[in-house]
Write a structure and sequence with these properties.
single chain, about 180 residues, mainly alpha, two-stranded antiparallel sheet, 2 strands, transmembrane helix, transmembrane, Maternal effect embryo arrest 60, membrane
């Protein structure tokens, strides 16, 4: 029985590090998307495909675009920093592990505070969810600047925005469900 507990502790730690690596990698990709979005100038008249002057996006929409990009960046950075901190805590715990030998197998016994780890995962997930929400709102503003405002009734704008407003929240709900499931089990 002791060998099974040791194997689970070592395997669980590897799973935790892999999960944290996944969070960091996804946040890095989204952060790259935010930087690409910030490099784009929304006030450049060559960026718009709108012919009707009534449908041209206001400067307020361009300001919101920049704000949402910054909020998104800060949320992804926060989430990644929390995940990196958790990963470092696990590594520090692994270096202070005691090694036990059972027959021909060697096991490392690491003592990681599972409640602290769960709370850290939850905080990191909240940062990722907020970052995705802000990035989605920034993309809605990009669509309004490029294709015309939503109030104008442009079918192209609605065709771009509606799938975004359906699939991103749906994906976030699924993500939150699995994070909460992992948090409680």
């Amino acid at each position: 029985m002791n060998a099974e507990v040791e194997r689970t502790a070592r395997f669980g730690t590897a799973i935790h590090i892999t999960a944290l690596d996944g969070i960091i990698n996804v946040n890095s990709l989204f952060t790259l998307a935010v930087f690409i979005g910030l490099a784009w100038s929304p006030t450049d008249p060559n960026n718009s495909l709108v012919d009707d002057p009534k449908c041209v996006a206001s400067p307020k929409i361009a300001e919101d675009l920049i704000c949402f990009h910054v909020y998104s960046f800060s949320s992804f950075l926060f989430s990644s920093l929390v995940a990196l901190s958790l990963k470092q805590a696990i590594r520090i715990a692994r270096t202070s592990c005691e090694t036990r030998r059972l027959m021909i197998f060697t096991f490392d016994m690491c003592h990681v505070n599972k409640n602290g780890l769960r709370v850290g995962y939850l905080i990191s997930a909240v940062g990722s969810v907020c970052g995705c929400g802000f990035l989605m709102m920034a993309l809605v503003n990009v669509a309004q600047i490029k294709l015309g405002t939503l109030g104008c009734g442009s079918s192209h704008t609605y065709c771009a925005v509606v799938p975004l407003l359906i699939f991103v929240p749906l994906g976030l709900v699924i993500y939150v469900f699995f994070v909460l499931f992992a948090f409680t089990h």
